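Handout, page 2. Input:
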Amino acid sequence: MIQNAVRRLKTIFTPRLSAANVSPRLLELATSGNLEAQAALGDIYFNDGRAENYAASYHWNGQAARQGHAASQARLATIYHKGLGVEPDPQEAFRWWRSAARKGHHGARLIVDRRQRDDSSVETSTAPAGFSAALHPGGRREGPTEEMPAENLSKQVLEMAEDEQRDVGRS
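Output:
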């Protein structure tokens, strides 16, 4: 508990790098192939959240992911999943999450485990969605709705992975 409080205080009082103040030295190291610098830039641009930095986030996370950096692989998966500056590609996203999970990335492991569980019970996860789509044009329900379990779990896991990525960047 005390460690969490200290970590939070450090994040409050430690100036965080942003896309606006990336050091030329960090860019130089990343350009020369330094894995940690590439991962750091990928994290900075990913967490910046501005559309004009999606390309840089994709580039640097891709560079580090291809070299085996687990957090960059998870960020790249999220980029593909959400379509941040690229066309959404769920299969490519899952491929990167699976790779990050193999390297021990906790958030990616949760996503892969959930997906495998969902795939093993396809009948229960897809039947309600198909039934709902048949009843309502455009596949939308009218009025208040409760999300399908698979959709809800997917959103929760994505949020957990994003929270973990932010926490890793702050420490």
